Predict the structure of peptidylprolyl isomerase.
Amino acid sequence: MESIFALIFLCVTGTHVSCSPGPLEDVVIDRYDIPRVCPREVQTGDFVRYHYNGTFTDGKKFDSSHERGAPFSGQVGLGRLITGLDRGVQGMCVNERRKVTVPPHLAYGSIGAGDVIPADTVLVFDVVLLDIWNTEDKVQTRTLSKPESCKRLVEATDFIRYHYNGTLLNGVPFDSSHSRNGTYDTYVGMGYLIKGMDEGLIGMCVGETRTIIIPPFLAYEEKGYGTVIPSQATLVFEVFMIDLFNPKDDIAVVVKEVPKTCTRKTVVGDYIRYHYNGTFQDGSGFDTSYQRNSTYNTYIGMGYVIQGMDKALQGLCIGEKRRVILPPHMAYGEKGTGEYIIPGSAVLVFDIHVIDFHNPKDLIEIKVTSKPKKCNLTSEVDDLIQYRYNCSLMDGTLLYSSDHYENAPITTLGANKVIEGLDEGLRGMCVGEKRVVIVPPHLGHGENGAKGVPSSAVLHFELELLDLQKGVPDGYMFVWLGDSPDPLFPAMDLNKDLSVPLEEFTAFINIQVAEGTGRLRPGMDADGIIKDMFNNQDRNRDGKIVAEELKLKVEEDSDKARHEEL
């Protein structure tokens, strides 16, 4: 009896065992193809799905699930299979192949099975196990890779976007989002997915890859799914989480860098220039302003950008860097956009660097950094000035500097020789004074910009007044600084001969300038100006002025009575 038991044990447990001839007492198992990895073996009470070929010992086939195109499904060890197969499949692994030889008394015995299987026949089954599960099974998850930082996990009611490969338990693929080149997008825990997938996705991070094994009763159960998922099939999904958000989400802001001084923050109605990198939550990029070498310029809170960005751009300082995360309902929604290849329901991540901002109602800002103690004379419209400057963008990028030229620039204030904001910023200065002037674009180079100056750029000027010559109003060459002599002609007629030639007229004007009672237009040739003034009064062109010819401009334009000119 002991020798018989040993023979039976050897035949059941060995691989490629040849048993001695004679009546079989038990099944003989030949495990001729065993997978390297076998996480689970068939036990009593398990449900199995397998293909088989059934033959007699002479090799003649009597049945085949392969030929029917449908594997066998049943429960093991509860009398639902012939006893020999019940024993023969126990301990099997998925994808294992074994030959099970069943003696008659463990098959169809002395009765047989109709005309197909004679009485007292030994049966040989060539079996490949496709699936195994139990009613006590739960969803199994195994993380394959996970990002180091995981600030948020998938929860019920979240909306997620993920890629997946779906296979049966034996590795046969049935579906893949990768082959469709599109993520699977859905709500979690709200019944849009099979129960096991709803459960298996909970707790995932964006960027995580995990395997989810779902028993049939939490998948497609007896019905299966079309021709790709058979009845009572265990499903294996390899999932890569691309994106997640909740419909109740607001924008999320992470401040990366804030300048030490921030005198003003953006508000609705401001116009902002900023650089950005746009990525999805998995880190893949979709757009960047840096690549175009141009800032993105827009009004804030006025609907010119997506809703989330409109909100995220408020409360920033010039020079600030922040990351903003926009849920789809505050970005491009379910449709996405083809312009930057943004899929539907995508969470967007923007890394923003604020270059500058202004408001269309802004005036220039002036900050005096240095001023002489004695300041009796200040610049004003019509004055001729010489000044030093550095012109930069608000991020410190130098555009122009007077130091790059041999001589500092000279200009007449109010004569439209420089941009409006700079002209205004140069007024009211003493010689030797230094100041910083911030010029908004509508008082600078506007939306069109200029050579080297970006569109709608706020300009930062460092100014120093080097020289100041008081001027005269536009259209005048000489003005009296007080009341003119009355009568004027006798004062001009220095030698009292009742006529004033050019030389005598020149001497008279120079005396007025020297004594501070009159002023010539600065920045021009004095002799040329005086000659023009003389010619204006020498109406008969005889080279001299007489009393009858002399007229003051004030007589011709009473509105300029304080600026009497010859």
Residues 502-515 form the longest helix (14 residues). Residues 1-21, 555-563 have pLDDT under 50 and may be disordered. The CA atoms of residues 393 and 406 lie 23 Å apart. The radius of gyration is 48 Å.
